[in-house]
Specification:
Catalytic activity: riboflavin + ATP = FMN + ADP + H(+); FMN + ATP + H(+) = FAD + diphosphate
Order of helices and strands: EEHEHHEHHEHEEEHHEHEEEEEH
Pfam families: FAD_syn (PF06574), Flavokinase (PF01687)
CATH class of the largest domain: Alpha Beta
Shape: elongated
CATH architecture of the largest domain: 3-Layer(aba) Sandwich
Keywords: ATP-binding, FAD, Flavoprotein, FMN, Kinase, Multifunctional enzyme, Nucleotide-binding, Nucleotidyltransferase, Transferase
CATH superfamily of the largest domain: HUPs
Radius of gyration: 22 Å
Number of strands: 14
Structural class: alpha/beta
CATH topology of the largest domain: Rossmann fold
GO molecular function: ATP binding; FMN adenylyltransferase activity; riboflavin kinase activity
Number of domains: 2
Distance between the termini: 24 Å
GO biological process, one term: FMN biosynthetic process
């Protein structure tokens, strides 16, 4: 997949695109439906399939620290978009100036003149531009004016409700990672680099990889059955999210114990896929009680991860 941040970088190579636009936070099953439709329509019409998104997320620019955490980083988002089969991703830098542009100016200059737009596929609730005036009705009118077709897809319903980034975020923050999987089409994951921690897990007999996180959305504190992606393989594990109250710590940490693994991975990038929450965080009377409970957690994790539908 070609990734560009300026439309002028690819215009000369395009003979017309079938495009979808969105933030695609999480690249959930609703987004996948849009991307698949773009891919298929582009192939049928001999067009280039393309997705236009923004970095940073518009809410980060408009709301600052009040913005909710992103489900996926831009890196992860682009990997998911590519996996669907999209040929070109345009990642526009999002600014307040861009947000203030009139929808018609954006359509004419970026989509029509910049990307040679021929077909546009949008979600059921999509709107953009100043005052969010760029809705389906306006886009349809602009399509007649500038020569492109517009298709609006219905929402994707899973377990009785519309799939949305907000719904998924709420689930993950409540620790409901198993329930979020059908909406995402995969287990929620966080990425990071293995950093030096207190090495307390090694002393207890359960060495852990302490993550320096790159992702924003972390599940509710507690203990989880997880898959850990490291050094080109996916291994079963148990992750703890919390402040280690037994030892009086205060910094929030994400630590993963990789089952039956002896390697040294300091400085290595890893991904932790959250399968199911085992229990909440708890303060134990001391190391002995904690070791007993960790052994129980490991046994439960092995049982959970052995289920056929728990595979990553």
């Amino acid at each position: 997949m070609i990734v560009v941040t300026r439309v002028e970088d690819i215009h000369e190579a395009l003979n017309g695109v079938c495009l979808t636009i969105g933030n695609f936070d999480g690249v959930h099953m609703g987004h996948v439906k849009l991307l698949q439709r773009v891919r298929d329509r582009a192939a049928a019409a001999s067009l280039v399939s393309a997705a236009l998104t923004f970095d940073p997320h518009p809410r980060r620019v408009l709301l600052g620290n009040a913005a909710p955490p992103a489900i996926t980083s831009t890196e992860h988002k682009l990997e998911c978009i590519e996996a669907v089969g999209i040929q070109v991703a345009v990642v526009l830098p999002f600014t307040r100036e861009l947000a203030a542009r009139e929808p018609e100016d954006f359509v004419r200059e970026i989509l029509v003149e910049g990307l040679s737009l021929r077909q546009l596929v949008i979600g059921y609730d999509y709107a953009f531009g100043k005052g969010r005036k760029g809705n389906f009705e306006l886009l349809s009118a602009l399509g007649q004016k500038y020569g492109f077709g517009v298709e609006r897809l219905d929402p994707v319903i899973i377990n009785g409700a519309v799939v949305s980034s907000t719904r998924i975020r709420d689930m993950v923050q409540a620790g409901q990672v198993w329930d979020a999987r059908p909406l995402l089409g995969r287990f929620h994951q966080v990425r990071g680099t293995v950093a030096h921690g207190q090495k307390r897990g090694r002393k207890l007999g359960f060495p852990t990889a302490n993550l320096a996180l790159r992702d924003e959305l972390v599940p509710l504190s507690g203990v989880y059955a997880v898959w850990v992606e490291v050094e080109g393989s996916i291994r079963p594990g148990v992750a703890n999210i919390g402040r280690n109250p037994t030892f009086g710590e205060f910094e929030m940490a994400v630590e993963a114990h990789i089952l039956d693994y002896k390697g040294k991975i300091y400085g290595e990038p890893i991904r932790v896929h959250f399968v199911q929450r085992i229990r909440s965080e708890k303060k134990f009377s001391g190391p002995d009680e904690l070791i007993t409970r960790i052994r129980e957690d490991v046994g439960l994790a092995r049982m959970i991860l052995a289920a056929p539908d728990a595979r990553p």
